[in-house]
Write a structure and sequence with these properties.
The complex is a heterodimer of chains A (about 120) and B (about 325).
Chain A: H1 3-19, H2 31-36, H3 46-62, H4 67-75, H5 79-85, E1 94-95, H6 100-115
Chain B: H1 11-31, H2 41-48, E1 57-59, H3 73-84, H4 91-98, E2 99-100, E3 105-107, H5 108-117, E4 121-123, H6 129-137, E5 142-147, E6 156-165, E7 170-175, E8 178-184, H7 185-193, E9 199-203, H8 214-226, H9 230-243, H10 248-260, H11 264-277, H12 282-294, H13 298-311, H14 316-332
Antiparallel strand pairs in B: 1-6, 2-3, 4-9, 5-6, 5-9, 6-7, 7-8
Helix pairs in contact in B: 3-4, 8-9, 8-10, 9-10, 10-11, 10-12, 11-12, 12-13, 12-14, 13-14
Classes of the chains: A mainly alpha (about 120), B alpha+beta (about 325).
């Protein structure tokens, strides 16, 4: 079996396992969609969106979250936030330490000193 | 400059910080000849002309300080913002919702998500110094993402903007282990610019911030609704509609929230207002048709569904499905 096939099957399985709670109420068009329906580029496939969410949840797990926590967290994001995060979860800014201020002052001082 | 030295943290982190410092020094030395002058357009704009109607100084003294431990500035900043919005939270309760162990930090999107999970609207104001100062002036502390490193070696950090003084030329932050850090406005802009001037507000349901713009704020409320906090989103849709009575997001959102809360008659009123204000919106007609169908008003439902189908657009498939359901219902119970 090819790698691509295994990837495809596992994606489907992931969607089946954790994607379902992400689906929206049937019958009504969701508010987000209603607002963005005017913009043509947002006409993305609903299935793709679910796969995006499942992938982000999976990546969050590899970064140390439990499956349930990852699912709950992804569920609180919008489609566009999920799309922005897809593929850059390892490089997106992650706010952390505040003690770097001292370091920054030294760097700024150094930059200014070199510049003058 | 009134910036305090942070107390020493654990040994490993000290070593890491020292290694990072050396690297950053080298990188800064390498980058310095390449960089041009430090440009602070927003600070210069503020200096040139004080924004109309903005008080010269404000400080939100009531915003409780949550002192962060290592890497936990995200939970700490959120706890302060949530307190101010009337939702009790602690660093311990928020860490499992935003902190990402593999990144030793908190992602911006998750800061917004955790806000929604507490029933608050997460709104990112326009990336302007003036916008965030206006928010502080109106009583809302603003979470900002700062780069305490340099562009090549970023050290991302969340802090909470709680005050400013235009005459003295400084802002006041709650940050890390400093409950009141006073920073010159220009330096604040310098720290803030690498994040694309990213900021966020945690807003109690029903509150519309002064810097809000209609489509962005409607989207922020829709995100709260989508995250399952429907009751809170309904209060914010109503407030949104008081400011922008014609808002498509506000009207469809209010209808969807009412429907999710089991209030079909109220949902129908909201969707009908949406179709009257936006006769070109297929989702408005689709949702109106769906509710009318459930209310047993089949003739009206069919007319609305046909309008939705005729308007087409990306939601055409849903409209066709709604029309088919209504026709089937009419056929079974004429």
């Amino acid at each position: 079996m090819s790698n691509a096939f295994i990837r495809f099957v596992s994606r489907i399985l992931v969607v089946c396992m954790i994607g379902m709670p992400f689906s929206v109420q049937a019958g009504l068009v969701g508010t987000g969609e209603a607002v963005s329906a005017a913009q043509a580029q947002v006409a993305r496939d609903a299935v793709l969106r679910v796969i995006d969410r499942a992938e982000i949840a999976q990546q969050l797990q590899t970064l140390g979250l439990s499956p349930q926590a990852a699912k709950d967290r992804v569920n609180a994001l919008t489609d566009s936030e999920v799309a922005q995060l897809a593929g850059r979860i390892a490089s997106a800014p992650a706010g952390a330490d505040g003690s770097g201020v001292v370091l920054l002052i030294l760097i700024v001082a150094l930059v200014w000193w070199l510049w003058k | 400059m009134a910036l305090e030295i942070a107390p020493a943290s654990r040994g490993i982190q000290k070593a890491r910080a020292r290694a990072g410092f050396l690297f950053a020094l080298l990188a800064a030395a390498a980058a310095a000849p390449l960089s041009g002058c430090v440009s602070l357009p927003q600070t210069e704009g503020l200096r040139a002309a004080a924004p109309a109607g903005l008080p010269a100084r404000t400080e939100l003294l009531d915003v409780a300080f949550h002192q962060q431990d290592d890497f936990l500035c995200g939970p700490a900043a959120l706890a302060m913002a949530f307190d101010a919005a009337g939702v009790a939270a602690t660093i311990a309760s928020l860490t499992p919702l935003v902190y990402l162990p593999g990144r030793q930090g908190s992602l911006q999107a998750e800061m917004l998500g955790a806000t929604r999970r507490h029933g608050l609207v997460a709104y990112t104001p326009p990336p302007r110094l003036e916008s965030v100062l206006r928010e502080v002036a109106s009583g809302t502390p603003v979470v900002v993402l700062l780069n305490l490193g340099i562009r090549l070696v970023p050290l991302w950090h969340y802090a909470v903007l709680v005050g400013y003084d235009l005459e003295a030329g400084h802002v006041v932050l709650r940050s890390g282990d400093a409950p009141r850090k006073v920073v010159p406005i220009g330096f604040f802009e310098y720290l803030w610019q690498d994040s694309g001037y990213w900021a966020m507000l945690a807003l109690a349901p029903g509150r519309v911030p002064p810097s809000a713009r209609e489509p962005e704020f409607a989207a922020a409320v829709a995100a709260l609704e989508r995250a399952g906090r429907v009751r809170e989103s309904r209060a914010s849709y109503r407030a949104l509609l008081e400011r922008w009575p014609q808002s498509l997001g506000g009207l469809v959102g209010l209808g969807n929230a009412e429907y999710a809360l089991g209030k079909r008659a109220a949902a129908e009123r909201a969707f009908r207002r949406a179709t009257l204000a936006h006769p070109d919106s297929a989702p408005a007609f689709n949702n109106l048709a769906h509710v009318l169908g459930e209310l047993g008003r089949h003739a009206e439902a069919e007319a609305a569904a046909r309008s939705a189908v005729a308007l087409g657009g990306p939601t055409l498939a849903q409209a066709q499905k709604t029309l088919a359901e209504i026709l089937a219902r009419r056929a079974s119970r004429p």
